[in-house]
Amino acid sequence: MTPLLRSIPSDPELPAKADVVVIGAGIIGASAAFSLAERGLSVALLEKGLVGAEQSSRNWGWCRRQNRDERELPLSGVAMDLWDEIAAKIGEDVGFRRCGLFYATDNPQQLAEWEQWQTTARKFDVNTRMLSPKEAHESVPAQGRRWLGGVHSVDDGKGEPAIAAPTIASGARKFGATIHQNCAARGLDVVNGAVAGVITEKGTIRTQAVLNAGGAWASMFSRPYGVIFPQASVRQTAVRTVPTVDVGDALYTPECSLTRRLDGSYTFAVSGRATLDLTPQGMRYARWFMPMFLKRLKAVQVGVSTSMFRGPEALARWTMQETSPFERMRILDPAPSKRTIAAMLKGVHDQFPALAGVTIADSWGSYVDCTPDAVPVISAVDRVRGFYLAAGGSGRGFGIGPGIGRLAADLVANDKPCVDPTPFRLSRFFDGSKVNVGAL
Ligand SMILES: Cc1cc2nc3c(=O)[nH]c(=O)nc-3n(C[C@H](O)[C@H](O)[C@H](O)COP(=O)(O)OP(=O)(O)OC[C@H]3O[C@@H](n4cnc5c(N)ncnc54)[C@H](O)[C@@H]3O)c2cc1C
């Protein structure tokens, strides 16, 4: 569990009706609720556990345009602007800081990929520059390493995962949205092929528009309506230290990444290291995902966890009258990998001796929900009128989350989309388009 998560109250009453019901209050659902409420629509935001308690509070907090896939770059620009603006609109700090991100490597292939990405950066006006070996050493002063070079993504930054989604959800409430925690959506009321309501464990809300922003659970929720959303999750691990000495805001090395939190503690993690748990859903969609996992993950362990039987990728059937899988697991809280923690702490201690004795306050696991091309789905669902999907952050959905929420809100409200939504359509997996695995 990530105990620093900001706790916000729920609204006492479930509304009888709403213009839009948003299912899932991670960074995407909270941002979509904010954007919809801001434009004057009545919104009910449903969360089966606590706002922000799954992926959105468990990540490193990097908000970046650096190294993104071209398809995401216009939307990531929108997201960075929203991060800049949202605190003023809400009247509260969401923890976002444009501190710049520093990457260093001694791997020639990785350096070549970063160099190649500079062409993309120029095309989309991303403020980033390659670092010489000397500059990389000055920016990422790791002991015993001879960096070949690095990258400084100048305008990128970090958010504060423990407060971002709850604070944005609270902001949505200031514009009239209602928030309902410990309130799972069990399913949809569909009449003549169109949404007529959402059935929750606490009653039904009449509505003609539903946004499924259920993170790792989005595919399972959609399946009973004949909606195929190829989604797979990998388990990642991170740790948090107590407040400690400052060695930099956001540093990447091949062995560890370090992100300084607002209270002066660090989040440590290792990029590309994950456990692929065997699950029924994973097996169903395996052929879609192999290219992506092979390209993106440097070190994959194969494992079995409770997700095989109870989590978002388990086999499950439920009726609207009985406890659903979403209620049976209020917060998806997988065990962290001891092996990964040992590797990351070695990476930190070897390279940053100033942090060698730091006390570890906490460690956690989290499932990262991915799409086959590592680009999110932000889309109307053709099979059910009024049903929309916004999920598949693929390990980098926090930084772009406000943008995903904004575009989803544009689609739901039938307003002019802030960017071309075509690359994010669900139908790309079925209309014969080639599935290009996104950039790292
Ligand atoms: C270790 C780690 C590091 C990461 N680092 C970064 C990073 O540095 N930068 C970055 O951009 N991204 C990063 N990510 C990815 C990022 O965290 C996710 O892409 C993003 O948080 C996804 O947001 P979400 O709102 O889609 O999902 P979530 O935050 O998982 O929210 C979905 C919510 O929906 C709720 N829900 C599901 N089903 C129902 C239902 N039926 N009824 C009601 N509620 C429901 C869930 O309880 C959950 O709270 C990282 C992820 C991990 C795990």
TrEMBL record:
* Protein name, per record: FAD-binding oxidoreductase
> Which organism was this protein described from?
Agrobacterium salinitolerans
* Signal peptide (from-to): none
Q: Which UniProt keywords apply?
A: Oxidoreductase
Question: Which InterPro entries does the record associate with it?
Answer: FAD-dep_OxRdtase, FAD/NAD-bd_sf
SUPFAM superfamilies per record: FAD/NAD(P)-binding domain
An example GO CC term for this entry is:
cytoplasm
GO BP = D-alanine catabolic process
Its Gene Ontology molecular function terms? D-amino-acid dehydrogenase activity
Query: Domain FAD dependent oxidoreductase spans what residues?
Result: 19-411
Question: What Gene3D superfamilies does the record point to?
Answer: D-Amino Acid Oxidase, subunit A, domain 2, FAD/NAD(P)-binding domain
Source taxon at top rank? Bacteria
Record family assignment: Belongs to the DadA oxidoreductase family.
